[in-house]
Amino acid sequence: MTETLHIVGGGMAGSEAAWQAANMGVRVVIHEMRPKVGTFAHQTGDLAEMVCSNSFRSDDDEQNAVGLLHWEMRAAGGLIMEMAETHRLPAGGALAVDREAFSQGVTARLSDHPNVSIEKGEVTALPDDGRWIFATGPLTSQGLGAAIAAETGTDRLAFFDAIAPIVYHDTIDMSQAWMQSRYDKGATEEERTAYLNCPMTKDQYEAFIDALLAADKTEFHEGETATYFDGCLPIEVMAERGRETLRHGPMKPVGLTNPHQPDVKPWAVVQLRRDNALGTLYNIVGFQTKMKYGAQTDVFKMIPGLENASFARLGGIHRNTFLNSPTLLDDQMRLRGKPHIRFAGQITGVEGYVESAAMGLLAGRLAASEILGRPLPAPPQDTAMGALIHHITGGAEAKTFQPMNVNFGLFRPVDGLKGGRRGRRDRYKAYTDRAKAAWTGWLAETEVDAAETV
To answer: 13: annotated binding-site residue?
Structure first.
């Protein structure tokens, strides 16, 4: 029998790590503190619960770095991508899911796996022996966070993240709103009508901004400081940067035609995206907020079509923890001071569901191969996963290290291609073609090694 792999945290990264290792023949124990110990953001004890958005973002594997990451995970038999496809919702060119069915599906698949067991309870220390992956996410518990800080000798790094509200569909006034994806994007009618749109006139927009800026906000605790993650800014913070910021961001009116008033171009548009398969819940896209609950209902009901809306969940803000990975982790994602311990997911300094799951996939494979006596090399830097792991374990500047989504700026240039916006389609296609070839080659080599071990 092989040595057991212990995985602390059953989020995106922990679930994917467990799936990969278990499928390689390694016994896995998932330690998940929920529901015994809750967090601000989580609502259930299910694995891979989606707490912010229900979107895995773009699914374009030729022109988008996150879509390429989807492709690599699918090629590696990833559980997160399999369950996302199973519980997919129409979202134009994005991959969005029924969040409740998705997490229940992940939980069921792992619970039924013969090599996986799940133990409920909090882990508050870094063990001195065994094989471990810590994938506790940005909401790492206070006790474990203190243990990590004590071991690494550094203060925990952090940023603030925000959650968008969710609205009951039957409380939305469809005589004002309409269904349409921006630029009618999508291959089917369902995809082309995946978003619910609420239009605003200039006067309505200006009044909304005034109310947003004046609303009561959640204050941080005394002495609590951190930056916001730019990809998940609260709408009030965006509005404070300029009155037109939202109109050129999540409320941009381009690519949409209001069928109720086809000759009138909206000044701004609020979009909502379906949050479950039944279509009973919709989340307000890009409307992460730190407004207090009472203020949220007052301000959001100023949006045309939402005057009588009821909210299944209001927004909120929470502090996320991550490591200074360039100084602490090697290219195998091992803690330099305790190499029997790996870290994976958002705590390593990647940002987003997909990036977290991808780092879990790698950590699971690397740890399992080590247990099986066939250590694997890190993935090629020209793959999406390789670019990410290179960034967090050495490519980034340690002094200014901040959470990072996957993007083509992390990729090594392809010689002979034109730079700038005009050349980007050819450049992005070259990046994705090169990455797919490199990833396919790495998978083939590693799976041959695994087969030889068995």
So the answer is: yes
223 pLDDT more than 50:
no
Whether residue 95 is predicted with pLDDT greater than 50 in this model: the reply is: yes
Task: Say if residue 407's pLDDT is above 80.
Answer: yes
Q: Is 9 marked as binding a ligand?
A: yes
pLDDT tens sequence across 135-180: 987 677 878 888 888 888 765 566 666 778 889 898 999 999 999 9
Give the end of a domain, one of 319, 353, 379: 319
Q: What is the CATH number of the domain that holds 227?
A: 2.40.30.260
Indicate if 241 and 306 belong to the same structural domain: yes
Same domain, 15 and 150: yes
Do 299 and 184 have their domain in common? yes
Rounded CA-CA distance 352/355 in Å is 5
> Residue 11, annotated ligand binder?
yes
Given 296, 319, 342, which residue is the final one in a domain?
319
**106-120 pLDDT, tens per residue?**
999 999 999 999 999
What percent of the chain stands above pLDDT 90? 65
pLDDT tens digit string along 253-270?
A: 999 999 999 999 999 999
Query: Interhelix angle for 65-75 vs 353-371, to 10°?
Result: 30
Tell me whether residue 10 is annotated as binding.
yes
My answer on whether 241 and 350 are in the same domain is no
Q: How many domains does the chain have?
A: 2
pTM, full prediction: 0.74
285 and 172 both lie in a single domain: yes
Q: Could you tell me if 290 and 216 are in contact, meaning their C-beta atoms sit under 8 angstroms apart?
A: no
* Coil, strand or helix at 79: helix
Domain encompassing residue 168: 163-319
Q: Domain check: are 199 and 273 in the same one? A: yes
**According to the annotation, is 143 in a ligand binding site?**
no
